[in-house]
């Protein structure tokens, strides 16, 4: 394994393209080194990273997204193999939504998890327009049908709704939870102001997570939503943790990330995912229809990030 490390001046000079501060980037590299050194003399690899929801449910810190899966991007058998590979490697948090390919993503996942529903933590979402139109129950039942299941582990409101609909939406979530049809509920794309608004309505504090876009290339929520979620003891879920198609190309081709990854025997994707999960309160859900890429991503579960003064 390549043991080369950049000195602080060399490393700092190469961080600008990613917008990394020297302390943050150096700490990340230190975390990679810590994982490597621990593995060298340990009898077994470090336990996979996990995150705990407010209800006590513990899940892997790394799951799988499905925004574009089941929609012709790759041959379906290849995509199905990719997701099954991820499940086998511990990436058992599976995220989808009705509006991903107008239900095709949910149908795709339904086929993949058939016969192994008990192995996955299954998430889907309801849309603002479905709530405004009064179609909450119909939307939920449609998702269950396409997924081939009778319950969801987590059901998310995909985007904020006008406050006039918020109380009834939370009440509908709570009714499903009381009936055992969902284990928990949460939201997606909520700012801190919207989270405060949510927590102001009855039972709004029962929200289990907020899913937002978050990656090394898109750090907007790092200074507001992430600390707010940590303060309120709910995990943040990172959508697109490797960026979109263009962002991922830039991120995974970055020389600094490549050197960090190479020095510690992992792929650039695994290094970038480990950075996203570094706080211990973030669940990353990268999407991939390629089995080999999924294997590379899965390595992030066993990478430990530590601050430089730890």
How does this structure look, described?
With 310 residues, this protein is an alpha/beta fold. It has one domain (59-298): NADP-dependent oxidoreductase domain (TIM Barrel, Alpha-Beta Barrel). It has 13 helices and nine strands. The strands form two sheets. A seven-stranded parallel sheet has the order 3-4-5-6-7-8-9. Strands 1-2 form a two-stranded antiparallel ribbon. Strand 7, helix 9 and strand 8 (236-239) form a beta-alpha-beta unit. Helix 3 crosses helix 4 (104-113) and helix 11 crosses helix 12 (268-276). The longest helix is centred in the N-terminal third of the chain and has 20 residues, at 22-41. It starts with 7 loop residues before the first helix and ends in a 12-residue tail after the last helix. 45% of the residues are buried. Mean pLDDT is 87; it is low at 1-42.
Q: Layout of SSEs?
A:
Elements lengths: L7 H6 L8 H20 L8 E3 L5 E3 L15 H13 L4 E3 L8 H10 L7 E6 L1 H5 L3 H12 L6 E4 L5 H16 L6 E4 L3 H8 L10 E4 L11 H7 L4 E4 L5 H8 L2 H9 L4 H9 L5 E4 L5 H8 L12
Parallel strand pairs: 3-4, 4-5, 5-6, 6-7, 7-8, 8-9
Antiparallel strand pairs: 1-2
Short synopsis of the structure:
The chain has helices at about 10-15, 20-40, 75-90, 105-115, 130, 135-145, 165-180, 190-200, 225-230, 245-250, 255-265, 270-275, 290-300; strands at about 50, 60, 95, 120-125, 155, 185-190, 210-215, 235-240, 280-285. The protein is α/β, with parallel strands linked by helices and about 300 residues long.
């Amino acid at each position: 394994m390549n043991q080369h490390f950049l000195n602080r001046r060399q490393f700092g000079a190469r961080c600008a393209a990613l917008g990394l501060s020297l302390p943050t980037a150096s700490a990340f590299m230190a975390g990679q080194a810590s994982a490597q050194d621990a593995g060298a003399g340990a009898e077994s690899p470090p336990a996979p990273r996990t995150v705990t929801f407010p209800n006590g449910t513990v899940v892997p810190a790394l799951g799988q997204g499905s925004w574009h899966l089941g929609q012709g991007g790759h041959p379906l058998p290849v995509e199905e193999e990719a997701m099954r590979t991820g499940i086998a490697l511990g990436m058992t948090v599976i995220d989808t939504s009705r509006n991903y390919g107008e239900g095709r993503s949910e149908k795709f996942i339904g086929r993949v998890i058939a016969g192994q529903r008990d192995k996955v933590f299954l998430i889907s979402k309801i849309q603002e327009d479905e709530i405004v139109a009064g179609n909450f129950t119909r939307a939920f039942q449609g998702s269950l049908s396409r997924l081939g299941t009778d319950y969801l582990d987590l059901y998310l409101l995909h985007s904020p709704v006008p406050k006039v609909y918020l109380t009834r939406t939370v009440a509908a979530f709570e009714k499903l939870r009381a009936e055992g049809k969902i284990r928990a509920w949460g939201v997606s794309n909520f700012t801190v102001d919207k989270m405060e608004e949510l927590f102001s309505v009855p039972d709004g504090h029962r929200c289990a997570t907020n899913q937002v876009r978050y990656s090394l290339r898109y750090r907007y929520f790092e200074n507001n939503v992430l600390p707010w979620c940590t303060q309120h003891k709910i995990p943040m879920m990172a959508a697109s943790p490797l960026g979109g198609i263009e962002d991922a190309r830039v991120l995974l081709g970055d020389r600094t990330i490549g050197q960090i990854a190479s020095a510690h025997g992992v792929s650039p994707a695994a290094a970038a995912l480990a950075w996203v999960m570094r706080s211990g309160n973030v669940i990353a859900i990268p999407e991939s229809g390629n089995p080999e890429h999924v294997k590379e991503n899965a390595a992030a579960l066993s990478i430990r990030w530590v601050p430089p003064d730890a």
